[in-house]
Amino acid sequence: MKKITIPELLKKKSRAEKISMLTAYDYSFAKILDQNGIDILLVGDSLGMVVQGRRNTLAVTLEEMIYHSRCVSRATRQAHLVCDMPFLSYQASLDEAVKNCGLVMKKGHAESVKLEGGEELAPLIARLKNVGIPVMGHIGLKPTHVHLMGGYKIQGRDAQGERQLLNDAKALEKAGIYALVLEGIPAKLAAKISKSLKIPTIGIGSGAGCDGQVLVIYDLLGLYQDLKPKFVRRYAELHQTVSEAIGNYIRDVQSGKFPSEEESF
Length: 265
Prior knowledge:
Elements: H1 6-14, E1 19-23, H2 27-35, E2 40-43, H3 47-50, H4 62-73, E3 80-84, H5 94-106, E4 112-116, H6 122-130, E5 135-140, H7 146-149, H8 159-175, E6 179-183, H9 187-196, E7 201-204, E8 212-215, H10 217-220, H11 238-255
Parallel strand pairs: 1-2, 1-8, 2-3, 3-4, 4-5, 5-6, 6-7, 7-8
Helix pairs in contact: 4-5, 5-6, 6-8
């Protein structure tokens, strides 16, 4: 399988080929996902919840994102690798934003960055593109805005919200993003946005009308038990599988069945 590049992702949109995207935070999971043909690996700031055990993503640092992106990059051969820019790493000033995005690519070996926000980010996106930093956009339910939104709530339910999201999508495309995540948006609106853009959209909780889909790998595998959003489909229940394996290990250690003669030197 050939390397998935940004031009290839744009071609997938033109050919009406669906794009698959999953989060990855470490080498071992990234290698499995990459070898099985995932199109995009996202080093998501969701690691703040599923890896670090926090209640939201706000406390994740730039250094932590760089570290996890570097781990994932060591296993990535075919997928496109994009890294989330964490809260306050790009909002303070254009110069600081460009520097921090550059560090994620330089030290984290990401191939692009993902920014949450609407048309207000257009000047930054244009500048990043000019210095060679590709940007994936993210509108709708924005996890770093959780307190402003009053929780993880569906966006674009009324006419004003719909107009704003359409304006955001168009402004971001014009500024130069190569793809756009649509999170927590009514399915009909997400499909409408997707049809209005030349770049691919990646949905999460936004219906089947998007050009691709993304899920958190810990949700997909049933490892993360604290939350289960409506849009999550669990393809495995590894929490139960891992629990059973650990229980068997403990019993074998306590009974003296492990290690056996064949497992000893």
